[in-house]
Design brief:
- This protein is of the alpha/beta class and about 400 residues long.
- The protein folds into two domains: about 140 residues, Aspartate Aminotransferase, domain 1 (Alpha-Beta Complex), CATH 3.90.1150; about 240 residues, 3-Layer(aba) Sandwich (Aspartate Aminotransferase, domain 2), CATH 3.40.640.10.
- The protein contains 14 helices and 13 strands.
- The strands form three sheets. Strands 1-9-8-5-4-2-3 form a seven-stranded mixed sheet, sandwiched between helices. It has a three-stranded antiparallel sheet with strand order 7-6-11, with no helix packed on it.
- Helix 10 runs parallel beside helix 14.
Length: about 400
Amino acid sequence: MNPRGLKNSPCNSGSGALLPYGRQSIDEEDIAAVAAVLRSEWLTTGPIVSRFEEAVAQFCGARSGVAVSSGTAALHTAMYAAGIGPGNEVIVPPITFAATANAVIFQGGTPVFADVQTETLLLDPAAAERAITPRTKAIVAVDYAGQPCDYRELQSICRRHGLVLIADACHSLGASYRGRAVGSLADLTVFSFHPVKHITTGEGGMVLTDCPDFLDRMRAFRNHGITTDHRQRSERGSWFYEMQDLGYNYRITDFQCALGLSQLPKLPDWLARRRALAEQYVRAFADVPFVRPLRLRSGRTHAYHLFAVRIGFAQSGADRNMLFQKMRDLGIGVNVHYIPVHLHPYYQNRWGTAPGLCPVAEAAYEQLLTLPLFPAMTDADVERVAAAVTELIEESGQQLEAVHDSSR
């Protein structure tokens, strides 16, 4: 079986090449920027780190940022800044990568799962407020796929209950909510610079905030809890340092930040391309009854880190797992984002979570499929992916109808 439009596709050429769901874009300018730092005096804790922090903060309209070694390290650093510790609860949605909840546990806190909204899979503010107890200290808003959460409502909830609002914006660099950029909407905002994200440093992450106390705490935390780094001591001609609190080596290198600095000016064009590709998918599936893209709410611009759809409704016969395998057999690297965190064995065994805790997220998970989307994709790539999904679903429906007819 070979869906129309895929016969001459590079992702079905027989070469074994897979069209991935996401991929970095690296050019000669990026390589030159990294090489220049490799030839310089400072490879880590040097001036390029702070330049990258300042550039991202300015892009997002935040006071400042703290760059670290990964998105997970950034989540952990944000939890530390917020003062999360034993006895504290942090509300998180289940449709996210496990690191969102894991970071709470790293600090000795307890993650509490609140369900998501059906059409967006973003944290449901009403569910979050119902989950608040006297032990709650923070809420984490996850901008799933690149769409900002309802920050106005979440900010209001946090003010009423005296909570810290943390934005897990690892999917939403460059998005906005009611005219304000992601990065300026929460007390702490976390970004990831993994290769499949909007810009990359190879591995890396950052936390943005307007709070000076948070900034000071995070800068020490990424450097073992020490209040000065090697370059600061070198500039002062001093060897002396003190460890004020228990921290980690979450430092990021200057050559990684040089890559990020080189990529950042290209981000607006890449975002525009992601949005154009997403719109092409939406048009392609407009008349396909059993493929439902997630809804974009008004007043928000989407960063489209992922293009996630829900597959299989009513009696379509289109099973997500079947479609996943057949698409990959065709050389199209679809994926699934995510297994609800509370259904992972660790959480069920250690924290007593179980199916039924977040029914909206659990139902969505059975239908979720992530389609390829990254700036280097062509319009023809989207056409081929959409054609494959459509024909496989139509084929499944025909097979189901044939089974029903034979049983009569």
